[in-house]
# Entry
Amino acid sequence: MSGAPQEREAAAARAAALRREIARHDHAYYVLDAPEISDDAYDALVRELRDIESVFPDLVTSDSPTQRVGAPPSSQFAPVTHAQRMYSLDNAMDLGELDAWLARVGDVVGERECAFVCELKIDGSSLSLTYEDGVLVRAATRGDGRTGEDITANVRTIRDVPLRLHEAADGDAASPATRGAVEVRGEVYLPLAAFERINAENEEAGLPLFANPRNAAAGAVRQKDPAVTASRELATFVYQVVDARRALGVARQSEALEWLRRAGFHVNPDVVVCASADEVRAYCTSAVDKRDALPYEIDGVVVKVDSFALQDELGYTSKAPRWAIAFKFPAEEKTTVLRDIRVQVGRTGALTPLAEFDPVTVAGSTIARATLHNADEVARKDVRIGDTIIVRKAGDVIPEVVGAVAGMRPEGAEPWRMPEACPSCGGPVWRPEGEAVTRCTNVACPAQRLERLEHWASRGAMDIDGMGTEIITRLVERGLVHDVSDFYLLDESTLATLDMGRVKQDGTPVVLGPVVAAKLVAAVDVSRTRPLARVIFGLGIRHVGSTVAEVLAEEFGSIDALIEAASADVPTPGEGVSVAAALAADPIARVEGVGPAIAASVRAFLGNPDNQALLARLAERGVRVAEERRGPTEPQTLAGLTFVLTGALDRFTREEAATALKRLGAKVSGSVSKKTSFVVAGADAGSKYDKALALGVPVLDEDALVRVIETGEPPVAPSG
Ligand code: AMP
Ligand code: ZN
# Structure
């Protein structure tokens, strides 16, 4: 119902007003850190705008806040040639090098006055943003300085990046805020809180951890799916206007920063204009003390000559401007005494040596232990118990042992050796040929057991609400739970009397009690219906994180089918067998997103008769071991066909339609390519529909889709 013209006009005006107001609140919240309205009120504004835009889709503008996330995933980033090269910076590693640079600048400046701007050096990833007529049109990475990558869709999701410049940037009608093009540059970074959250999530999901926020930020802006970038909660600091004199008519870096602030960018508040070299030195020395208190990482101070005219006189080397220098903070290192190297046993049986040392404060927090990863690492660093060791924080976050102070080794200190028996169960340990990691081979190892049980109950896996470490520990101690299948035998009366190992003031033991017991039994029961992917993930098979588990569940549909695939005879590449042939013969490794290493781990797990028995018990006790809807009886009449769904359907949601198609053996993809067999276009179909036409992919309407689903017959491509 795209009403009368007046109605449309009114809607356009309302949408524009809403957009302005939402942008203003984004700025207040993300840049100024001073929200003016409640989250609910903000959401209401966005909802009203969305409603208008869904009635009048042609009113959607690229700078609409509803467009921050919305671009489809893309498989590659187009190259962007930088109009002006993105230089790196020369470093001053200490005050001496800083002085040398100040002296070189002094030689050129002579008797003239020369102010400097000192800015914090944000440890993130460089970013270029281009605005045309005030609207963000392109975001790019630095790349090699001459050519970067187009990451516009991802950067749009960063909430402190203005999609439109504030017109109040200056009153001038010819200002870049309203007319012409302007490029600004800055740093995109991951706040420490987001970094810690992401690593905690990755740890829970068994995924590799990011070494530091910088790597995490660089990875996040290069995500294929903008929705993933959005979930990372990146932020920016903008510190440069390209060709500021021409673009803004200003003469100094400090003035350019002022303009950036007015235009709505997030400019770092710790900028200081220094009138002399002495002030620069003082700022650089004092900035070190700031770093621990900031909610983001900095790795130094950037000192820039304020005047653009003097910048021009100083010019550039082949790599960096001569008018700026990065004063780098020393990586903070401390010495302490190594008291012990303890071995931890993980859920997958890995034995990890852990250095335990006298507590020291490094880069703002107290640390007392650091992982030494594996036996090779201990040998390489040659640290021995009793040694005076040097510790630091890698990427200023993760505690790390650098090495030992050779001259301070106590007499008789022996090289450390990995124990031959598991410190948890006393079972034999094993280090596979060519691997760095030593493992306990005992499947019933209690250290592994507790972690396995916790992992099964965790949020990303079976999500048994309330089944935390303490209760699981008690259940194991009381002999009530040995493996994950035992959760499903627990009853309320047993749980209600579970001794929590503490006593009340009157000396009676604390028990779990009937209320918690009933909740736990209900939570265990609910977990029986978790999708197959969660079950596979919950088993804690090495290398099988939640994504791989989903792929396996999707591909095989049941534990039985997976066990069968795992029992296939797979040739080892080598003598007469090519890697490709081995891969083709491996029903698990050839699944997209899996590969030989994961397949080998799945085979090792499922080939173990103890584990098969465990899976049989789980099935017996009502845990879902096959995808519900996909019976082997359903004829796979659409096998080999790929569908893409676009637009709104009347009779089902897109997800329902996708499930129905998949049940018949079809693949359903999110993007149109030459390999797409059919595009199903509902109401208001967008770019996917256009792409289908361009590629000559046949398009079906909803009626045709209903026929396919009801009859199970593959669609007939409309001719022509
Ligand atoms: P480097 O990568 O060590 O050569 O340092 C140069 C990089 O520091 C630049 O490419 C920017 O990405 C980054 N940087 C961080 N903060 C600033 C700042 N305030 N001014 C200029 N560059 C900065
Ligand atoms: Zn063990």
Summary: The mean pLDDT is 88. The pocket of zinc ion (ligand 2) is lined by residues 345, 422, 424-425, 427, 440, 442, 445, 447 (CB under 6 Å). DSSP finds 25 helices and 24 strands in the chain.
